[in-house]
């Protein structure tokens, strides 16, 4: 009887744990920024929000890791980070300015949700490369803002104003781009397209941010297998004045190359992929593999290049013998 009771308790415990993990998990995360002399309140708020988002992703990772164990899956730390960024949804945001001892501090608190019931880990791992590339772009943009924020803290006068203007614009757009990238990761490409349409139609958005908006919308179309529209947006991204310092517009070449490869337009595919390979600093193995594949199809080696020198049945290479004799005579 005692054994039966113990087994029932274990079953109830396991069932309860499964139910807890299956239910949407609410996460609260905060970030703070202490303002210095002449710091912009908007920059302070955005910096605090970025810190709160970093904390939220870390907390989401705990739930993702626990959930993966219930699915008998082993995830690496990188897997957890990539998936956490893709499944986290911000429900509410609160920014509170506080004056203490003559110093202003902004605290941003995010209420987020991780719905493990909607996580298809197997599908996510199968598409891990796509998720990771988007996550890398999101991380790179955040890193750029962090570096710019450090410059802003140290700057004075006119330089501080100029960096502040750039930083305010980047924070605002990064929040939008980050949200759209998350939608694409989650398979919600249509809402990403709708939001990016608003960015693209905003006359104040120009140059590199506009080019990136076109690129990101192209990515959404690409994930929907709407290759024609994707190519149009990638072309627009390249035609818009930009540089790759902050926004990786060069990735448009990579996806153009993949589309042309699918269409077996190998020469065009090779040109695009070669450009992406050069722009990434020869550091992306996926781009390299796609480029070499396109090159093999576009420029197959000639048959004679593979031929071995003719040899007689006795193993003597008479071609080489005659060549050596002629060389000796000429000498």
UniProtKB/TrEMBL annotation:
Keyword terms of this UniProt record: Coiled coil, Signal, TPR repeat
Coiled-coil annotated residue ranges, if any: 124-158
Keyword Signal carried by entry: yes
SUPFAM superfamilies assigned to the protein according to its UniProt record, in alphabetical order: TPR-like (SSF48452)
TPR repeats: 211-244
PROSITE patterns xref list: TPR
Signal peptide: 1-22
InterPro entries xrefs: TPR-like_helical_dom_sf, TPR_rpt
Source taxon at top rank: Bacteria
The protein's name: Tetratricopeptide repeat-containing protein
């Amino acid at each position: 009887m005692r054994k039966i009771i113990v087994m029932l308790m274990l079953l109830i415990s396991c069932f309860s744990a499964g139910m807890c993990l299956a239910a949407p998990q609410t996460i609260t995360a905060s970030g703070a920024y202490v303002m210095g002399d002449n710091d912009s309140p908007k920059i302070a708020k955005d910096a605090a929000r970025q810190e709160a988002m970093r904390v939220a992703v870390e907390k989401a990772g705990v739930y993702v890791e626990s959930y993966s164990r219930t699915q008998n899956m082993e995830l690496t730390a990188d897997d957890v980070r990539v998936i956490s960024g893709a499944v986290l949804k911000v429900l509410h945001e609160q920014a509170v300015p506080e004056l203490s001892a003559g110093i202003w501090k902004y605290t941003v608190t995010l209420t987020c949700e991780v719905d493990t019931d909607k996580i298809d880990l197997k599908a996510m791992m199968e598409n891990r490369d796509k998720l990771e590339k988007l996550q890398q772009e999101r991380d790179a943009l955040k890193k750029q803002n962090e570096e710019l924020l450090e410059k802003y803290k140290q700057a004075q006068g006119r330089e501080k104003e100029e960096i502040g203007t750039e930083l305010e614009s980047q924070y605002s757009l990064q929040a939008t781009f980050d949200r759209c990238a998350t939608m694409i990761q989650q398979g919600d490409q249509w809402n990403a397209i709708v939001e990016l349409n608003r960015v693209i139609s905003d006359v104040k958005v120009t140059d590199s941010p506009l080019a990136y908006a076109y690129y990101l919308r192209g990515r959404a179309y690409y994930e929907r297998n709407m290759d024609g529209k994707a190519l149009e947006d990638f072309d627009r991204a390249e035609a818009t004045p930009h540089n790759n310092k902050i926004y990786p517009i060069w990735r448009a070449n990579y996806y153009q190359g993949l589309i042309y490869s699918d269409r077996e337009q190998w020469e065009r595919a090779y040109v695009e992929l070669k450009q992406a390979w050069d722009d990434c600093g020869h550091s992306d193995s996926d781009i390299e593999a796609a480029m070499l594949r396109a090159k093999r199809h576009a420029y197959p080696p000639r048959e004679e290049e593979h031929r071995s020198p003719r040899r007689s049945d006795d193993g003597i290479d008479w071609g080489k013998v005659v060549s050596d004799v002629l060389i000796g005579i000429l000498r």
